[in-house]
Specification:
With 361 residues, the protein is of the alpha+beta class. It contains eleven helices and twelve strands.
Length: 361
């Protein structure tokens, strides 16, 4: 009997020591943890869990349904039951209703002899900063992609202009010096536009922070004038009339992006003209609730109603008799939405289109 009593006393002593060690662990861990038994009763939690989820000692012994609102993750009860039934670990990234992100691990507390789960231990690791960093990188990657598309798309126009003007210059008879001077002047304007765009790209690549769409005060009149210079030969060829009506003069936006938006919309308004009809384009700005609305209205071919959504998709072209890559409006939509705005189109076949660009104030 003495030997049995001594062993029993030793086991109790070991259990007390183990319990003290567990208590010490729970007191000193920096990770929010909950211990929930098989009946979904909260049995224990670490001090960080108390702080993160606003728990108190009075919550020990309560059913998890009574306190799951504190944890601010609606499916936690389902996840606990799943782990208890399957006896398998569950790991997932979750966002709580207070917009925090956690790496949540639910581990079954197994009774080895009976091979059943007597509860779970839930661990929460705050990964909000990591998720936010990933979002910033994703946003930056999208902006880099926008830059690449802009280079591929917006540079083609001026380069095509230069090729056409050089060909015209070669064909001008020697005695028509005035015509030569005019063409040389137009070549100079196209070169100026290209140089300006390249300089902005160089400035962007030298930035060390997330400034792919750096906001600055941009004047609409300056931008439209700049774009008209870049499209001067197209305007000259078609006799296009560009009318402006600026009720709002300035906007806070990326200069490079707003110029690309105007360039694409104005270029399209000229390209998709009706044969034997002089293109007339009206560019307007006005205040509208939380936005500055810039609209570009033309009298061109128009867009069929069932095509008005897909024109903003990548590599989508609805007219194949006009040169293009099908990425212009895709770029425009991305740039507008990246700045917190939106773009819409209203159009009638044979009458023209109005693109409405809502820029966040």
């Amino acid at each position: 009997m003495g030997k049995v009593s001594e062993d029993k006393h030793k086991n109790i002593k070991n259990l007390v020591k183990l319990n003290d060690e567990l208590e010490n662990y729970f007191r000193n861990t920096v990770i929010p943890q909950l211990f929930v038994d098989a009946d979904l009763i909260l049995r224990k939690f670490t001090p960080p869990a108390m702080k993160h989820f606003n728990l108190s000692s009075a919550d020990v012994g309560r059913h998890i349904e009574e306190i799951y609102n504190n944890i601010r993750y609606p499916t936690i009860i389902e996840n606990i039951k799943e782990v208890i039934e399957s006896k398998q670990d569950l790991e997932k990234e979750i966002q709580t209703t207070d917009k925090m992100w956690y790496q949540m691990n639910i581990l079954p507390y197994l009774i080895q002899k009976e091979n059943k789960a007597n509860g779970v231990i839930i661990t929460f690791v705050d990964i909000t900063d990591r998720i936010e960093s990933l979002k910033r990188y994703e946003k930056l990657n999208l902006r880099y992609e926008n830059i690449i598309y802009s280079v591929a798309h917006d540079f083609k126009g001026p380069l095509s202009n230069l090729e056409g003007l050089i060909k015209m210059l070669k064909d001008v008879p020697d005695h028509k010096k005035e015509d030569s001077k005019m063409i040389i002047n137009m070549v100079g304007l196209s070169v100026r536009y290209l140089r300006k765009a390249i300089e902005e790209l160089t400035d962007f690549n030298m930035e060390s922070n997330d400034s792919a769409g750096a906001v600055e005060r941009v004047n609409f009149e300056d931008i439209v004038e700049d774009v008209q210079l870049a499209l001067k030969d197209k305007i000259y060829e078609t006799d296009a009339k560009v009318i402006t009506e600026f009720k709002v003069s300035d906007v806070g936006f990326s200069r490079k992006n707003i110029r690309s938006i105007v360039y694409n919309l104005l270029s399209n308004a000229i390209k998709y003209k009706v044969p034997d009809r002089v293109p007339e384009i009206l560019i307007k700005t006005e205040k509208l609730n939380d936005y500055i609305l810039m609209s570009v209205r033309d009298n061109g071919r128009g867009i069929a109603e069932d095509k008005q959504e897909i024109i903003f998709s990548r590599h989508t072209r609805i007219s194949h008799d006009v040169e293009g890559t099908g990425v212009g409006l895709f770029i425009v939509k991305r740039m507008v939405e990246d700045g917190g705005g939106k773009i819409e189109v209203e159009s009638s076949l044979g009458e023209g289109s109005t693109f409405k660009v809502y820029l966040k104030k």
